């Protein structure tokens, strides 16, 4: 049950992070356009300053502020990619690979355990049928007996001995697989809990840093237009 819940959590978290990355990419594309438009402001103000005498210096200075602001987008997008990479690490490695791999291995171990238990039960039934001389279900052995006659007591004893050895070996293997499974669950869950704690710290740090960067960008935008306002005021 815990591993099923983990798999569902992994799928849901992967979906959430994928959507977050797509939204970030769309915002970054639009942000790039906004910054580059400020470059157009810079060009227009500079061209305008060339035909003005009294307003020329103010327009030229305002255009310079716009150009600087527009050119800063490349560094901003580089910083954004850094935060996106932190999210992608958990999208592709931590969740898609690590958690799913653990769940898949647990499923395979459970399947192997069930097959071993079924094989052991089948051998015990065969041994019981040989010992009692009764066949509870249809079997190839029962049909063969009807066609070719009963085994000799010696043949039956030999088969019983072989089955008993196989049953003993199967019980040991089943016990070993049970122990291995419990140990795997114990270690895997402890590892997953550590991973979740690390994931929470890393994603919290990435989201806070991203928010701080967005706040800084907004402040720079305000400062650019504040500077432009001062330039216009001095004309």
From TrEMBL:
Look up the record and report any one GO term of the cellular component aspect. Answer: SNARE complex
The positions making up the signal sequence are none
Q: Could you give a single Gene Ontology term from the biological process aspect? A: protein transport
An annotated Gene Ontology molecular function: phosphatidylinositol-3-phosphate binding
Tell me the protein's name.
SNX4 protein
Organism, per UniProt?
Answer: Macaca fascicularis
């Amino acid at each position: 049950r815990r591993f099923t819940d983990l798999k569902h959590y992994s799928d849901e978290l992967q979906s959430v992070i994928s959507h977050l990355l797509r939204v970030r990419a769309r915002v970054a594309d639009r942000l790039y356009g906004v910054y580059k438009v400020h470059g157009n402001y810079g060009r227009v103000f500079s061209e305008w300053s060339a035909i003005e005498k009294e307003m020329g210096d103010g327009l030229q200075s305002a255009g310079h502020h716009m150009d600087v602001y527009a050119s800063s987008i490349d560094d901003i997008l580089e910083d954004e990619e850094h935060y996106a990479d932190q999210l992608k690490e958990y999208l592709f490695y931590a969740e898609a690979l690590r958690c799913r791999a653990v769940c898949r291995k647990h499923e395979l171990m459970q399947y192997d355990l069930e097959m071993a238990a079924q094989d052991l039960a089948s051998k015990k039934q065969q041994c019981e049928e040989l010992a009692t001389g009764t066949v509870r279900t249809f079997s190839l052995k029962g049909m063969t007996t009807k066609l070719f006659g009963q085994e000799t007591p010696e043949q039956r004893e030999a088969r019983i001995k072989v089955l008993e050895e196989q049953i003993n070996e199967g019980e040991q293997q089943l016990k070993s697989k049970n122990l291995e499974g419990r140990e795997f669950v114990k270690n895997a869950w402890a590892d997953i809990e550590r991973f979740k704690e690390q994931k929470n710290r890393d994603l919290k740090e990435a989201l806070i840093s991203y928010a701080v960067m967005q706040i800084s960008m907004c402040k720079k935008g305000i400062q650019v237009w504040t500077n432009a306002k001062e330039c216009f005021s001095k004309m």
